[in-house]
Amino acid sequence: MTTGSAGRGAGQQPGRGTEPFVVRQLRPDDLAALEALEASQTHRLSRPQALEQAFVDEQRLLLGVEDSNGGLAAYALVSRLPFEAELEAILVATDARRQGLGRLLLSQLVEQARDWGAERLLLEVRADNAEAIALYRALGFTQDGLRRAYYAAHCAAHEPGGERVDAVLMSLTLA
Q: Whose CA is closest to 33, among 94, 89, 74, 80?
């Protein structure tokens, strides 16, 4: 789809991430890499069945970012709605963060949503994810609302409870 270098203007730390990254539409043969990326996180963003279904759903698009070795460093899942597009998931591998990959993916998603004729790009984000919220705001997203106690607390599967976390609802006007 596109090649980009995640430079300092994209949130890169000095001396890191100078190699180019390639953003492309993911294919069914990328499912194992997607599942491995998801499994590396404390909480999965998407169920394996939902990722698999996204490959055959014409109203959904999976984009991935390949690193210079051809490995999957990040992915995003977006849905086409009648007048809007919705970011369902975006995930950057822990060791690939702070290199501008989230920004690179989001710029492609905004372009895709505009190509679809969407008026807005919607998303929700955990209220405790300050880095993601800062990125979304820097890209022009505004807060539309809050879903109280929407997400489970960050805790290991064997630990009980913890306080649930709000979801911040945000959107970017495209039209």
A: 74
